[in-house]
Amino acid sequence: MSLRLFHRLDTAKTQYYHFKAVIVAGMGLFTDAYHLFSIAPTMRLLGHIYYDKSPGHRIPHKVESAMLAVALLGTAIGQLIFGRLGDLVGRRRLYGLALILMMAGSIGCGFSIGTSKGYVLASLGFFRFLLGVAIRGDYPLSATIMFEYANKRMRGAFMAAVFSMQGFGILASSVVTTAVCKIFSRVPEEADIAWRLILMLGVIPAVMTFYWRMKMPETASGENILQANQDMELVLDMSHCQIAEGHFLQPSKSSYLLFSKQFILRHGRNLLACSTTWFLLDIVFYGYPLLQSKIYLKSQHGKDTNEDTAFDAAFKVARLQVIVACSAMIPGCIVAFFLIDRVGRLIIQAVGFVFMAIVYFSIGVPYDGYWEHHPKALLILFALTSFFANCGPNTATFVLPAELFPARFRTTCHGIAGAAGKAGEIIGVVGLLMPSLGTGVTLIIWGGICVMGMAATSMFAKETKGTSLDENE
């Protein structure tokens, strides 16, 4: 790879292609968030349809835990497989495959087999596993591609912009769910069609960006030097001859291998730091939607009643998600966009963890007997946890693994860190569904986990703000 090319990418002016890359790369995260946050109201619909005789029309804890665990297992496997293959065969080649699997999984969820609960839930679990493999396999590819396209001055901001598509996916999921619930509330007997439609509509953003994803050039850190140089002509205002001039930086595969002693000495600390902080964050962040709907719907203005229809129950959850997405998640991503290249990744991550801990302790300590009388204050505090997560560790854990490692290990290490996050997500989500822990105790534990996340941030060997492409090599 030409060092001249690295320098030109690092110093290139912001141009149209950067913004197109943000949209194309961000659609994977958009789709991920759509399906992640559509499952909570969908579970409410399924409970009313297939468990209408159970207390509160709720799906049994074991069944709900199994459904969520299967999907999360798929996400962990996807990040590991696609992360490793991204370094072995190239980012662009796998990008289309991930999108095809996303579309197949989205449509498959809607066409879950049969009408009996056993067939439906088993089929839905399988297709959500497939969807999880595709969506989270897209994470290391999207992060790495954006890192390798962006200029040094705006690299963090562009990657944060890609990640912000997650917030818009949450908003889209909630808006679609509320609209479908309102439309189908006139024909309550068609509830089985409604939840299928909500999940199938998640295929639209993937279809819309498929063509552009197939046209994206291979990144500047690809193995094929000649092809990468030719592809970069599409991105830079620089001819192939100019790009090819100067010194070349050959991929040094022979110097040390993945997980070799030298790899551990050079990159082990950063990989451990990325994995640990992502693991800790996901315990609290992805249990958050379920806990949010559970505790706020018990308060005065969101309480379920026996007279609620399936659409009423799902609508309440989705409406709450709209409020939080607009008031906290998306604003948090916007703040991260402006701060990440000014303040640095590690500072916003550590500060975000600290404020999340403060809010969780503030809710959890006086939880029993207090918050049901102060529902609006409870909603504001929960929104604050989402805001501080998105303008802090939720964005930083996505950005840091793409910036800390050389090209030949970049998607692999991002996938490993992300898979560690999925392990945390499984603990957070499945553990939350176990009825033995009280909600207040859970929140206090979450506050302690955030304190651990703040401490784990000090494990990183360096700040990546302003890092150039050739430094990583």
Automatic annotation (TrEMBL):
Keywords: Membrane, Transmembrane, Transmembrane helix. Residues 21-465 form the Major facilitator superfamily (MFS) profile domain. GO terms for cellular component: membrane. It comes from Eucalyptus grandis (Flooded gum). Its main location: membrane. SUPFAM superfamilies: MFS general substrate transporter. One of its GO terms (molecular function) is transmembrane transporter activity. This is Major facilitator superfamily (MFS) profile domain-containing protein. The keyword Membrane applies. Gene3D superfamilies: MFS general substrate transporter like domains. PANTHER family: SOLUTE CARRIER FAMILY 22 MEMBER (PTHR24064).
